[in-house]
Specification:
Layout (H helix, E strand, L loop, with lengths): L14 E7 L11 E7 L3 H10 L6 E4 L5 E3 L4 E7 L7 E8 L2 E9 L4 H10 L2 E2 L11 H7 L2 E2 L2 E2 L4 E8 L4 E4 L4 E4 L2 E4 L5 E9 L1 E2 L2 H18 L19 H7 L6 E2 L2 E3 L7 E3 L5 H19 L8 E3 L4
Parallel strand pairs: 2-5, 3-5, 4-20
Antiparallel strand pairs: 1-2, 6-7, 7-15, 8-16, 9-10, 11-12, 11-15, 13-14, 17-18, 18-19
Length: about 300
């Protein structure tokens, strides 16, 4: 459904910067600069800004900056920063065969753990795992983020998108090919998620809060959260785990420049303090090559790599 705004031109009210260091905005704390960086003042402002861009301008939507590496040569395009911009969570009512299930809307810039906590506080269960996703709703929708047995699109009943011309559309899950860490609009086209509608089962707040605390404790105990990282680097192969394969190849602790395969969790690459994007990408490629050579498995990157090498 097209929700285009055909009103008068909208004066831009967001924050525009040029030559912005992306190391400030990605969780690896490495990488080059973006040619243009824009933080919209809200959804109407975002739509208006998109209409000002050349049709050939590369556009990158960015939330908390996890799951992303910007090469040292930078991104020769426009980065749109949704965190603190496309915000807001609210509860709505959804009918389901006569039963009402807890249903919520959340903006693309909302950190996924915020939705998890909000849902639990409002009587929802089944989404506690979202507290362990280190990104925003927009990123979770774009890649079908998941952990601890849950996946984002198991809970999505609708999503709002914006295209390059600033037109808004309401999309349904049936509009997408959805798989493990994969979401693609059927028929192609360039659209970005600006919000989602999520449905959960009814839950008990005390039990759900305990489950969320337990999952977060497990995350702290097993992941290198004290060091800059981008979350899981590789997808898990069918019926196996990337971390197990990487460790079996003797790669835990392997270092290139300032980048290291975490000794705590082999599917994490950490910045020891002065890693370049080239260090991190070289280590990613090395891990893929070693696992293919020694285990016969072609690991697929979960993290996205953009920009130009220096």
């Amino acid at each position: 459904m097209d929700m285009s705004d055909s009103g008068a031109p909208h004066p831009l009210r967001g924050t525009l910067r040029h030559d912005e260091p992306m190391s400030r905005h990605v969780t690896w704390r490495a990488g080059g600069h973006a040619k243009t960086f824009y933080q919209p003042a809200g959804l109407p402002d975002l739509c208006a800004f998109l209409r000002t861009l050349d049709a050939r301008e590369p556009v990158l939507f960015l939330g908390l900056g996890s799951n992303l590496l910007v090469r040292d040569g930078g991104f020769d395009g426009t980065v749109i920063f949704t965190h603190h911009a496309l915000t807001g969570i609210s509860q709505v009512t959804e009918g389901d065969g006569g039963a009402l299930r807890p249903t919520f809307t959340a903006g693309a810039g909302v950190p996924t753990p915020h939705l998890a906590r909000f849902a639990v506080k409002h009587g929802a269960g089944g989404g506690e795992w979202m507290a362990g996703v280190p990104g925003t709703i927009g990123g979770a929708l774009a890649m079908n983020a998941g952990c601890y047995g849950g996946e984002t699109w198991e809970h999505v009943i609708a999503a709002e998108t914006v295209d390059r011309n600033g037109n808004l559309r309401l999309r349904r899950p049936s509009d997408y090919d959805i798989g493990y860490r994969h979401v693609e609009l059927k028929g192609g086209g360039e659209e970005w998620f600006v919000s989602g509608v999520f449905v959960f089962q009814r839950g008990d707040e005390i039990a759900s809060m305990k489950r969320m605390r337990d999952l977060l404790s497990k995350r702290v105990a097993t992941q290198p959260l004290s060091q800059p990282n981008a979350g899981s680097v590789f997808r898990n192969p069918p019926d196996d785990h990337a971390a197990r394969l990487i460790e079996s190849c003797g790669l835990k602790g392997h270092t290139i420049g300032g980048a290291q395969v975490s000794p705590k969790h082999a599917n994490f690459i950490v910045n020891l303090g002065a890693a370049t994007a080239a260090d991190i990408e070289s280590l990613i490629n090395h891990v893929q090559g070693e696992v293919l050579s020694k285990a016969g498995i072609a690991l697929v990157r979960e993290v996205r790599i953009v920009g130009d090498a220096r």
